[in-house]
Amino acid sequence: MSAIHPRLRFAPSPTGYLHVGGARTALFNWLYCRKHGGTFLLRIEDTDKARSTDESTRAIFEGLHWLGLDWDEEVVYQGAQVERHQRDAHALVASGHAYRDFTTAETLERLRAEATARKEPFKFDRRIAEYPQAELDARLAAGEPYAIRFRVPEGSTAWDDLVHERIEFPNKDIDDFVILRSDGTPVYNHAVVSDDIAMGITLVMRGDDHISNTPKQILLYQALGAALPQFAHLPMIHGTDGKKLSKRHGATAVGDYQHLGILPSAMANFLALLGWSPGQDIEVMMRDEMIARFDEHKLLKKAAVFDPKKLEWMNGQHLSKLPLDDVLPRVVPALVAAGLTTDADVAARAPWFRTLLDLLRVRARTIDDLVRQATPFLRDAIEYDADAVAKQWADRPATRDLLDAAAGVLAPLPEWTPAAMEGATRTLAEVRGVSAGKIFQPMRVALTGLGVSPGIFEVLELLGKERALARLHAAVRRLGEPV
After folding, report:
1. Cα end-to-end distance, the chain, whole Å
2. In angstroms, rounded to a whole number, what is the distance separating the alpha carbons of residues 448 and 471?
């Protein structure tokens, strides 16, 4: 790493949601800065006034906040920098690196059509824009509109990419490109370079769909007499079908995952592995470990695959490994929203809720999954899962008899403790000549309606004696009804 203090930026356009690819780019920039003591900056590229919206800007802020990606200086709005973009463009004209182009849109359209008719690619010929000084002065005096084009020099443009190593473009393949439109608005490549110079950016880390922009931007840096930043172009993100990630693969907005029961730490961990590998088969990392392990030299060249099932698995790992106090603020609002409890109830029974959620989270993959598993403990009536009933209550008369017997040995217990309950039910299994599982599994369905739950004695303790016995009796009655 250079001795220069690192300054990196994430520069989204506020024309839609914060998508997965943008969030991954922001995360890698943020990780680099946090690892190397750099400055992480946020720039909103809102020069496209027709498509930029305040709603999209808010969505970007909310997505970054949710992921825990904080920036270190005031947000820069590109639209507020237009005067500097214009000054830089005119400075390039003054230095001979750019020129005024009075060519009308109609003329350009005709020239493109003629090139198409000749089956040739259109390339702007700067000779049509070159006028004698007297004519140029007259056009300027008359107030004729003009664009400013960059004068691409001969030779080639190359850089050592942090991800893709040496990349080189022949300049003959780069058209003289517009940097300032005739209405005075900057074109993307020029605005980006002007802003990055002003912001002191030392490393531009972005998706590799920007590789074709980089030679133009390097030429602009050089023409403006500015030091070149490093460049790092991150691989594209594909769906599991190998095609570029899009809405057909499911949710592509980071904000959607917030509402699909995904934890921000799990999302960040998952995104970090899309284009980077810490090595040693390490996958599950909390934020501090990601920062400590991040190595820009281990960024990958090949496209990454966004696998929703892997994200769910990752989320389950974070649900079980995070400190309970970090999980509760994410889960309790979901329980309240589902109508299962209230904030007041959670506060009044805080130890009980902590025990419940601590037991449930090890078997959950998403917050929604955890809410589903918590439902039997927070409602009086339960719904029986059809698959669990079919599997565990297949022999209805025998199951009814065992559940009735289990209720019979549990009801007299003076202490409602796991040890006492386990002793009573295991003795029952011995007396009946069946394995303990033949009693425990049907009991689980009777008590929770589900085929998976915490240990059966933990379930009994959490439900409490009265409610647990009521559910066993309700199951006995149900099993006695005609199918």
Report:
1. 72
2. 9
CA 375-380-381 angle, to 5 degrees, is 80
- The predicted structure's pLDDT at residue 244: 84
Beta carbons of 64 and 42 less than 8 angstroms apart: yes
State the architecture of 386-480 in CATH terms. Orthogonal Bundle (1.10)
Options 247, 302, 321, 438, the catalytic residue: 247
Q: How far is CA 18 from CA 12, 59, 342, 349, in A?
A: 8, 7, 32, 38
Q: Which 3 state secondary structure label does DSSP give 203?
A: strand
Q: What is the Cα–Cα distance from 133 to 96, expressed in whole angstroms?
A: 14
Q: What is the pLDDT of residue 120?
A: 87
Q: 89 by DSSP, 3-state: which?
A: helix
Residue 229's alpha-carbon distances to 7, 157, 202, 447, in angstroms, are: 10, 14, 4, 63
Is 247 annotated as catalytic?
yes
Query: What CATH number does domain 1-74+235-322 carry, 3.40.50.620, 2.60.40.10, 3.40.50.300, 3.30.70.1520?
Result: 3.40.50.620
User: What digits encode the pLDDT tens for the residues 360-372?
Assistant: 999 999 999 999 9
pLDDT tens column, 141-154: 999 999 999 999 99
CATH pick for 81-188 out of 3.40.50.150, 3.90.800.10, 3.30.70.330, 3.40.50.300: 3.90.800.10
Please enumerate in sequence order all residues whose Cβ is within 8 A of that of 270, keeping only pairs 6 or more positions apart, or say none. Answer: 310, 311, 314, 315
If pLDDT is split at 50, 70 and 90, which confidence band does 1 have?
very low
Radius of gyration of the chain (CA): 32
Q: Could you give the 3-state DSSP secondary structure of residue 367?
A: helix
